[in-house]
Design goal:
This protein is of the alpha+beta class and 144 residues long. It is built from three helices and seven strands; from the N terminus they run βαβββααβββ. The longest helix has 16 residues.
Length: 144
């Protein structure tokens, strides 16, 4: 399965993935949302910055899912994965605020990141605000 992850452009996350500095992608949810139970080792994740074409891909090496999160479980996850995710061992206040109240967390371990020839996608059927899309093949949403 292929996945498309839309990243916050101002944080330079796609570049950090490409350089091997960001080795996991973390998603937190109040409800189970894609890619929950849809992603597995061997899948390909394509990354794009918001407002930009897809430019990076990586292979999923491992997936971890956490549910029924409370403050303590959330802090433990942040402590364990913060460096691999955002490059710091300090838990940023904005990350704590964002994680607050989220009951689900998925940690996607990334391997073999590489640049791809930039391409656009059509998110029409997935909602313009979708931050993650799972498809059988990326060609289904790739604009030629």
């Amino acid at each position: 399965m292929d996945h498309l992850a839309i990243m916050k452009k101002s944080r330079w996350l796609t570049q950090r993935i490409l350089m091997g500095q960001k080795t996991i992608e973390t998603r937190r949810y109040k409800n189970k949302s894609a890619p929950w139970d849809k992603i597995k080792a061997g899948d390909i994740v394509y990354f794009k910055d918001s407002g930009s074409p897809v430019s990076v891909q990586a292979t999923v090496s491992q997936v971890e899912q956490f549910s029924d999160l409370d403050v303590q479980k959330t802090q433990n996850i942040l402590k364990k994965y913060s460096y691999a995710d955002i490059g710091t061992t300090t838990i940023l206040q904005e990350v704590l605020a964002y994680a607050h109240g989220k009951k689900y967390c998925i940690i996607i371990h990334l391997a073999n990141p590489c640049a791809v020839k930039p391409f656009d996608v059509d998110k029409t059927w997935y909602g313009m605000m979708a931050a993650w899309i799972s498809v059988d093949n990326i060609r289904k949403i790739k604009i030629s």
